[in-house]
TrEMBL record:
GO BP annotations listed: polysaccharide biosynthetic process; UDP-glucuronate biosynthetic process
Protein name (Swiss-Prot/TrEMBL): UDP-glucose 6-dehydrogenase
Pathway annotation from the record: Nucleotide-sugar biosynthesis; UDP-alpha-D-glucuronate biosynthesis; UDP-alpha-D-glucuronate from UDP-alpha-D-glucose: step 1/1
Active site per UniProt: C289 (nucleophile)
Amino acid sequence: MTTLNLTPDHRPTTLVGTIPPIAEHPRLTVIGTGYLGATHAVSMAVLGYEVLGVDVDAAKIALLASGRVPFYEPGLPEKLREALDTGRLRFTTDFTEAAEWGDVHFICVGTPQAHDSNAADLTYVDRAFATLSSAITRRALIVGKSTVPIGTAARLTELVRASSPVGERVELAWNPEFLREGYAVEDTLHPDRLVFGVQSEWAEAQLRAAFRPILDAGTPLVIADLATAELVKVAANSFLATKISYINAMAEVCEATGADVNILASALAYDSRIGSRFLKPGLGFGGGCLPKDIRAFIHRAEELGVGQAVTFLREVDGINQRRRTRTVDVIREMVGGSLEGVPVAALGAAFKPNSDDIRDAPALDVARMLSAEGAIVTIYDPEAMPNARRAYPELSFAPSLPEAVRGAEVVALLTEWAEFREARPDDLGRLVAHRRIVDGRHALNADEYRARGWEYRALGRPVESRTVELLSDARD
Ligand code: UDX
């Protein structure tokens, strides 16, 4: 096990010296059972811990308790049933039960973008910490996992002390989570690293006990102070967003010069200092994390007086947004300059494949922009249709891929689901009005489509560009 130990110098010593015994297998509660919390609760139970999942949403708790996952996440339903069968995983809406039962409480509630600014909305985090700490009557550790602005853990430490009936016997730690949707179980059970932001040896020991099987498997561990632990998460997401926008900025330059961004990306990726991961050009990033995390980071950095250090993230956001408008421009160009009354098939609604998450989804943004210009847009997504329909009842949806492309003047691939990548150009070609396709994710074989008479376009590539296989990584 690799341990980058920054302690003891960085750790306040108030609680050191009175360290109570560590439970071999601490009892874990997980507050908030969304993507993060449900996956964490299930995975910890599978690893051998007794776990209590807690949520204010009774319907969600009832679903999970009956072995059903309220969202699409490959592999999670099987693991949920496996965990329930062991008898180690239970669910409740009762915070008092959780407070009395648990040794280590993980807070996994959402921190969405606030409605009126770029800041993170901390209402749910604050409420979870306050409700739980006011009900805890014994020594316990509350561990924040939610993505929060730097300084939140320090503020919550005060809040917990003030609201807990047992004062400093309830301690706070931070343990950022790096899981990706679509790979949530794998990322939780086999993370690249664990980060523990702690204020005492006792807290560190509790977390080591809570993650023992993962640490025993050789997972690197970084011990940090609270602020660094909070910062690791936003810094990681900012870096990933920057890498994607970097290659998409190069795509803009390619478009102006006739260069080919796929050849460029391949050549860059062979440099092991750069690598191929998160260097895939296209429609850019969306989802519930990357876009809102960089905006909240800019906001927080400005509050802290270091806004200049992250001004580049505004450009990262700007480049990302421009990919969406540029996709609409290419589609408009292909049909001769006006989208009014033009049938367009929009393939994809989720922000990425293997997810039903439509938060800040580039695909739906493009569909809405096309529709605003008068195009007759028909959307199809293998998993995200119910969410998309609920959020945008004014848009039109088709029940299948063939239905979506039937009669289309242009097909736009916006989320690279396997179903779209594997579709045969001739099969689609027989259904469309015109064989025109915009590959918003560089996911299709350009040569094959052209050979079948399709006009094929992709962002950042010359009109007549040939297929270039981007380096792929099995972990993406
Ligand atoms: C991200 C982080 O990867 C994860 O560590 C963190 O915990 C949560 O945020 P996630 O939102 O699940 O995870 O999606 P991710 O796989 O990172 O993809 C984000 C977006 O970037 C998607 O819209 C994807 O299509 C896009 N993307 C990704 C690219 O456009 N190009 C790439 O090369 C990689």
